[in-house]
Amino acid sequence: MKCKKTFAIAGILVLASFNALTAQPTYRSLKQPDGTTFQAIERGDEWLHFFETPEGYVVRRGDDGYFHYFNINALGDFVATDLKVGIDPPVDVNVRPYENPGVLRALQRKIDTYNAAAEVNRQRYLQKQRSVVGSVNALNKGSGRTTLSTQQTVQVDVGLLLVEFNGRPHYTSDPQGSRPNGYTVNDFETMFFSDDTYDESSPDGEDVFGSLRDYFEFQSHGILTITGQVINPSVNGIPTWLNMGNSAPYNTLGESDDLLEDAINRAVADSGWNCNYDVIAVLVSQDDWTWYQTGVAWFQSSFSSNNFPPSFDFTNWFGGYVFNERNAAEYRDSDEATFSHIGINCHELFHVLGWGIPNILNQGTLIWAHSGSGDWSSMSVGYRTGPLRKTESPGDLDPIARILMEWAVPTGVTTNLDDESITYIEEDANLNETFDFYRLTSSYSIEEFIVENRQYSGFNSYLPEWWKSGNKGGLLVWRHASSTSQTRSLRRADNDNEVVLEGMPHVSDGDLGDPFPGASNNREITPYTTPSTNPYAYGTFTGVAVTDISNSDTTMTADLCLIFHQTRLKI
Question: How far apart are CA 335 and CA 329, in angstroms?
Fold first, then answer.
């Protein structure tokens, strides 16, 4: 089904200022091994990940399995204390250490280094893609919409390397005892590489909605094809897991880069396995909560070819990441871990292909909860979506990501448009179709806005988080720092950055009030409205407006169509 929307852009010649509302924190209960519980909120991303107590103490899991209080030193390193959260008093522990200017600069330097490596990989990937598909200029515009003009595809080969540790063997059973040998090679390869067939149930009987290959074929307009296989040899379809010996060196966050490197070295040098793939995904035995290292990405530029044996072909390697054989639900308040789903893999693979992480400072305030795009982007927390919140049906990439990977070209708006149609393409990887994004560029700053139609269907079927309450889609207005930046955020129609709902973190991400007009029935966004198109903290304005938004479907079903009239506002 396809729905359409229309909008327009307007210029205004009066300065205006806008102050962002501060999001209300949402805390949840975490449990220590001895049963002690405490309240904390999740901060950061997979690279700078930690929890924070209501008092502002930084909390991470230590080598002993307990959550400890941490400080952050002048080098930006997280330093564990011997003090256990909820058990020991936080003596000599700094409150919100990341607000210290020196620490903040050190963390920002680390992020800048990471993002520089990501950009190297993005350019490498684009070079590979352009050599097959052509450049962004090889696009045409017909019938008022931008469409891709090629039927060529680019292939990225992913090798799955299965590793286990002494005392942490791979999964070998289930409550019915029907998997005495664990998961099969086919289980892993079907989840990753099957083509339009992984749409019934996972090996543990949970609903699934497509493979990793299916996901990227749709997100890329059919340009990117993910192929690959399990690296480990097998006997009768049962993989031989690579034993890494003692797990102690890899028990803490931040050491998965060592694990990735060591696993590849051991597979190549000790076992003689073929590891010549574009990307290597190291799959760790057991579940993410037990291991507490749910997928972290590293890029090719993070390693030297001297760290690998000569038989490893480093030339075409983008990098790799670590994830888990099984994963628990987002809130991890039970032991119901099951066969891993595609969401975390989609997220981490896209990092390896060149997607960075948000800067600490964004929109004039500290940003520690991903990019401000929530469930609306799989590069924020949208990879977690699905009926069980186990990443089984990750939401779309945000349009900025698709544009910067040259998988979509937005229609530039240079004049006022009336009744302009914006089409939502459901589950369609046809290169003759379009994602139909529109770009509104500010005349007064480097700010720009990307407008898209997002419906709750396809991989987005499990938006919002309380998706059972309705299937109302709408128009999303994305604020983009500039045409080359990866920094982006969502201007939510109801201006509600976070709704506090007990026991549910990130509850505002993907809610019914985010799209226009959505549950709030908000029919315009201008420099004078709340939310505003103005920069959050700069005291200037953009002159961009989308006005007179109305619905053509009063039932508010998935067939919702919006009509946008963009008329020039006058002083």
Answer: 9
For β-strands 411-413 and 438-441, DSSP reports them as parallel
> Structure tokens of 289?
């909560």
Considering the entire predicted model, what is its pTM?
0.85
pLDDT in tens, 416-450: 766 666 766 655 545 555 567 888 877 666 778 88
Closest by Cα among 376, 363, 351 to 300: 351
CA distances from 565 to 420, 421, 479, 521 (A): 8, 10, 20, 15
Segment 7-51, tens digit of pLDDT: 443 322 222 222 222 334 467 788 888 999 999 877 766 667 788
Q: Are strands 50-52 and 58-61 parallel, antiparallel or unpaired?
A: antiparallel
| Burial of 123 from C-beta contacts in 10 A (0-12 / 13-18 / 19+) | exposed
How confident is residue 558, by pLDDT bands cut at 50, 70 and 90?
very low
Cα distances (angstroms) measured from residue 100 to each of 73, 130, 298, 368, 541: 10, 44, 27, 15, 30
Place of tokens 């390896």: 352
Q: Which of 347, 346, 373, 344 is nearest to 358 (CA)?
A: 373
Pairing outcome for strands 474-480 and 488-491: antiparallel
H runs (alpha helix) in 46-167: 101-133
Q: What share of the chain is helix, strand, coil (3-state, %, to 5)?
A: 20, 25, 55
Tokens encoding 98: 């990341």
